[in-house]
Amino acid sequence: MRKGLIWVLILLMITVGTLAGCVKTKEVENEAIFTAGTYEGEGQGHAGVVKASVTVSETKIEKIDLVEFHESEFAVEPADQLVAKILKANSGEVDGIAGASLTSKGILEAVNAALAKAYLEGASTAATTEAAKEAVKLEDRTTDVVIIGAGGAGLTAAIEATQNGANVIVVEKMPMVGGNTKYATGGLNAAETSVQKEKGIDDTVEIFIEDTMKGGGNLNNPELVKVLAENSAGTVEWLMGLGADLTDIGRMGGASKDRTHRPTGGAPVGQHIVDVLYAQSQELGIEILLESTVVEILGDSSQVSGVTVETADGNYNINAKAVIVASGGFGANNDLVAQFDPALKGYGTTNHPGATGDVIEFAKNIDVAYVDMEQIQTHPTVMPSNNYMITEAVRGNGAILVNREAKRFVNELDTRAVVSDALLAQENASGYLFFDQSVRESLSAIEGYYKKGFLIEGATLEEIAGKLDIDAATLQITIDTYNGYVADETDPEFSRQSMARTLSVGPYYAVEVAPAVHHTMGGLMINTNGEVVNSSDAVIKGLYAAGEVTGGVHGNNRLGGNAMADITIFGRIAGKNAALSIK
Ligand code: MEZ
């Protein structure tokens, strides 16, 4: 029944279509189309007015400055890409950047309003007509394994496949590697590691499995969860062998043991792991093609044979014996998110702009099976003002949540679904993440938030209560009560298990937080070998997948730290098996 509903939604999505057409545009060269000068134009972006100052010579758009731009930090990269695209096309008639549609709309409106003032009479239409779109066929290529996506899963798979003797090409639509992995902060979950043993943490693979199944509402595929837990320690060793620092350990929501591995001092894990994987891929000579979008998987529901790639210069096929899909989830595509979970329409997201679920489009001809597409997770502690995620590790290291009545309202380390719902039930559908100087000093990721100016600071509880406009006396009672629970090692109000430290050392800090879309748990159905299956439950020969593009590992709620484990563990499995399959 559920599968039927999913297919209706997928068909709907296919008809809506989310991919921008990538075609080569012909330019009008050496023909005067502008009156040289600098012109201004305005548009409406996601977060307000976008104003562009556009400088043109007689034949060319020379420079674009976004002189007014209020979009979030996550929109800066796509905005730069769009400006580069307009300059390259020498025209404002280009497609927006996937995943940043409203920001793109604002920029394009502003640039085109400026260009309208610059065009010589009649030239605008002439230029547009001349820029008639024309696909160019480039020369095809051949390799052993082609990997779609250069995020954490794709890079990991590329390394394993290469180390197992395959020639590999990685195809990435964004102008940089890393995907969502570069935003991961909290850490990577693993049980029975050498690092845990050194710290005397008594964890087991079985407890890791239990936590993951319970956290996912037992909707997870237990076989995949077993693979995740059993291979976690080995993968931590593998990453450390490549030079990763995973020697600090913390606790995330829904975990009953400290098993979230992260760099020394609690530094953000994602960019570090991307740097390690990228350096290794370069050392191995792996070819990574950026700004190259896969638009089709070649083959059918029984066997695949490569991919079709689109670039600004044209299209070509990469013929391959195996294809690994590691293209990530769809958290940045709110139209898709809302089709699967209408309650999330209009939500912000923690995802990078490329997380748009392109697999729905490029795999539509091979009848892949999808699982759990409607399972979409919100992360509870995201700043509503700019969609910046404040890592769960802050709570793991001792922070609490208070509402506008200055009271706690939830076990802060319950699963994300529970904490998100609790936040939404508060006044303004948000709350304050609250901690003291000792928590700040325990986690270096917090220094980043401090330097970015995200934290509200008060020397005393009274001062910070004033800044938050909440009742100081109630806040004092809340903190005293909580500190008592820490001392007693029991929280009779909310049954919080891990209370790392009391909140008693000023200054105190707070940041307003609310839920935003974080992880799409559904995706391609895979087996324990990382092979993709079709809608008749048969393996599609030569097709593998890993990471957030797959479904089944996390059930209805992914535990913090399990994404980094998922991408690296299943990335390794897919890479190795793809390479071995072609020998
Ligand atoms: O795995 C995650 O999503 C995670 C640990 C996020 C975070 O809060 O840092």
What does the secondary structure layout of this molecule look like, with pairings?
Blueprint: H1 2-16, E1 24-25, E2 37-44, E3 49-56, E4 61-68, H2 76-89, H3 101-118, H4 123-130, E5 133-134, E6 141-148, H5 152-163, E7 168-171, E8 188-189, H6 194-198, H7 205-215, H8 222-230, H9 232-241, E9 248-250, E10 260-262, H10 270-283, E11 287-289, E12 293-299, E13 304-311, E14 314-325, H11 334-340, H12 359-362, E15 370-371, E16 376-382, H13 393-396, E17 400-402, H14 416-424, E18 431-436, H15 437-442, H16 445-451, E19 456-458, H17 461-468, H18 472-488, E20 508-520, E21 523-525, E22 531-533, E23 539-545, E24 550-551, H19 562-581
Parallel strand pairs: 6-7, 6-14, 7-11, 14-23, 21-24
Antiparallel strand pairs: 1-5, 2-3, 3-4, 8-10, 9-10, 12-13, 13-14, 15-21, 16-20, 17-18, 18-20, 19-20, 22-23
Helix pairs in contact: 2-3, 5-10, 5-19, 7-8, 17-18
Bound molecules: (2E)-2-methylbut-2-enedioic acid.
Catalytic activity: dihydrourocanate + A = urocanate + AH2
Protein name: Urocanate reductase
Cofactor: FMN; FAD
Provide keyphrases for this structure:
583 residues; alpha+beta; FAD/NAD(P)-binding domain; Flavocytochrome C3, Chain A, domain 1; 3 domains; 8-stranded mixed β-sheet; 5-stranded antiparallel β-sheet; 19 helices; 22% strand; disordered N terminus; binds (2E)-2-methylbut-2-enedioic acid; oxidoreductase
